[in-house]
Amino acid sequence: MMFPIRCFTCGALIADKWEEYKSRVESGESPAKVLDELGIKRYCCRRMFISSEDYFDEIVEFRSKFGKRGEGKA
């Protein structure tokens, strides 16, 4: 859902680099180049960036339209 604060494998702090990575990749830069320039060297940390999918907004929209199952029942 949200980008993790630390790498699941090695525990390195990675969340502080997410916004810059995301904006630079969306502007057309190569993900590999951006990760190199941000200093993300370990393949486990690189995997966290490359495989991350930000779908938090979609969940909030779904919840607001359909609500929680079982709401309103006694």
From TrEMBL:
SUPFAM superfamilies: RNA polymerase subunit RPB10. Its cofactor is Zn(2+). Its main location: cytoplasm. GO terms for biological process: DNA-templated transcription. Its EC number is 2.7.7.6. InterPro entries: RNA_pol_su_RPB10, RNA_pol_suN_Zn-BS, RPABC5/Rpb10. Keywords: Cytoplasm, DNA-directed RNA polymerase, Metal-binding, Nucleotidyltransferase, Transcription, Transferase, Zinc. GO terms for molecular function: DNA binding; DNA-directed RNA polymerase activity; zinc ion binding. Binds 1 zinc ion. It is an enzyme of class 2 (transferase). It comes from the Archaea. GO terms for cellular component: cytoplasm; DNA-directed RNA polymerase complex. Zn(2+) binds at C7, C10, C44, C45. Pfam families: RNA_pol_N (PF01194). It catalyses: RNA(n) + a ribonucleoside 5'-triphosphate = RNA(n+1) + diphosphate. It is found in: Cytoplasm. HAMAP family: RNApol_arch_Rpo10. DNA-dependent RNA polymerase (RNAP) catalyzes the transcription of DNA into RNA using the four ribonucleoside triphosphates as substrates. Part of the RNA polymerase complex. Belongs to the archaeal Rpo10/eukaryotic RPB10 RNA polymerase subunit family. This is DNA-directed RNA polymerase subunit Rpo10.
